[in-house]
Amino acid sequence: MKKAQEKLGALLGRNPGLSKDFNNCVDFSLTPEEFEAGWCELMMKYESMTDSHFENLYKYREAWVTCYFKHQFFPFLQSTQRSEGFNAVLKRYVNPHKSILNFVKQYQKIQTHILVREGAKDYRTGHLQSEMSSSYPIEKQAYNSYTRDLYEKFRDEFQLTTRYNVRPHGEHLYELYPNQ
């Protein structure tokens, strides 16, 4: 959406209502069918929707319109936090007043350090066993798919989901009680 607003900012500014309608179509479509219908309405309502940037957006809609990927699981994904963390590392190790050669050397050191840490995680995943807390298929899949560290985070969160049971207590009322 940020890229769309960068590319289409002037076009959206020249067409009152387009920005709001565009955002509504993208943000409030719960299914791909709703999005497709909303997009068709936008195409008929605004001539500027034939702009090549809109055509490219539509072509790659499955990558940025939420209703296309809302059922997919992206655990612990925090891209902004990751890039901010790496920027902090660069600032700590690289002096902006030094030469580009110095930057490259420092960057290589940081890269080696990261690769060593990743290698240790790969070793832990391949050689160390971690105990599964249940026999649920989702936990087995997480165990086989994630690194050991990430699996242990998943397992801890997954265990919390089984701490309570729910039983009906009337037509629209439920009782939550601890699992013994």
TrEMBL record:
InterPro entries: FHY3/FAR1
Record's subcellular location: Nucleus
Transmembrane parts of this sequence: none
Presence of the UniProt keyword Zinc in the record: yes
Keyword entries, A-Z: Metal-binding, Nucleus, Zinc, Zinc-finger
GO molecular function, one term: zinc ion binding
Protein name in the entry: Protein FAR1-RELATED SEQUENCE
